[in-house]
Amino acid sequence: MSSETAADPDEERRIVETLRGARTQIFAELRKVIIGQEDVIEQLLLAMFAGGHCLITGAPGLAKTLLVQSVADLFHLKFARIQFTPDLMPADITGTEILEQDENGQRRMVFVPGPIFANVILADEINRTPPKTQSAMLEAMQEHQVTAAGKRMKLEEPFFVLATQNPIEMEGTYPLPEAQLDRFMFNVFVDYLPEDEEVAVVTRTTSGDKAKLEPLFTGSDLVNFRSIVQSVPIAEDVARYAVRLAATSRPHQAATPEFINEWVSWGAGLRAGQYLVLGAKVKALLDGKSHVSIEDIRHVAHPVMRHRILVNYRAEADGISTEQVIDRLLETVQPPA
Question: How many helices (H) and strands (E) does the chain have?
Answer without folding.
Answer: 16, 11
